[in-house]
Design a protein that fits this description.
With 225 residues, the protein is mostly helical. It has seven helices and four strands.
Length: 225
């Protein structure tokens, strides 16, 4: 066995920051009241992170790219039949989990931008630009549909990690801290992910641009859209 760099630092920071923000979003929503101001801010940060992950999935290092863990039906079926994946990074089931989580979190965060609250007169920054009926529907979707899907996906994600760690004795958590994964040796064609200062500077630039865009959107005067 040998170790190679699979998860670049920007991707690892994305992973753990998103996990912390999702917990914070749940806590602030549970508390309610004035904490909802922070709930909205956390939602903006989550949306920026998800947009970053989508961009990074196309231009980031090799194992961060969606193409590196985009498996076809036959590969997924073979993995379910017991044929192990030979690629570093996400296995076929893990890849499905990643795509599902990104989609659900994106839907949850984006719909929150259009929500309203008829009781406390609070609303998402983009609710003013759509009809009240559509805002009401997106509010229902945000509070009763996508959030349930998010809870289910997070529970399945944690259960899968626990199963791999306890039953299959595979280290899945440590690589998300160190960035290095153990692979069979020799494995022709397997190369380490790029994780140098240029990669990190690119990530900071993208994240900063997305954050600036989000700040512009949430502070946009009513007459501008």
């Amino acid at each position: 066995m040998k170790k190679i760099r699979v998860w670049d630092l920007p991707l690892r920071l994305f992973h753990w920051t998103l996990a912390a923000l999702l917990v914070a979003a749940w806590v602030t929503q549970y508390i309610g009241g004035n904490a909802m101001d922070w709930h909205f801010r956390i939602g903006y940060a989550v949306l920026v992170l998800i947009l970053f992950r989508i961009v990074w999935g196309f231009i980031g290092p090799r194992y961060a790219r969606f193409s590196s863990f985009l498996y076809g039906p036959s590969a997924i079926a073979g993995y379910l039949r017991g044929h192990p994946s030979q690629r570093p990074g996400h296995n076929p089931l893990g890849s499905l989990s990643v795509f599902a989580l990104i989609g659900v979190v994106f839907a949850q965060a984006l719909s929150g931008m259009f929500t309203n609250d008829d009781i406390f007169f609070t609303e998402g920054p983009l609710a003013r630009y759509i009809s009240k009926d559509l805002s009401d529907w997106l509010t229902w979707f945000h509070r009763d549909v996508s959030v349930v899907a998010l809870y289910v996906m997070v529970a399945l994600h944690l259960a899968a990690i626990a199963w791999y760690v306890v039953v299959k004795r595979k280290r899945l958590i440590r690589p998300m801290f160190t960035g290095d994964q153990e692979v069979e040796e020799p494995m022709p064609g397997i190369e380490a992910a790029r994780d140098d200062w240029k990669t990190r500077l690119l990530a900071v630039t993208i994240l900063g641009g997305l954050a600036a865009l989000m700040i512009w959107i949430v502070t946009l005067p009513r007459t501008y859209l």
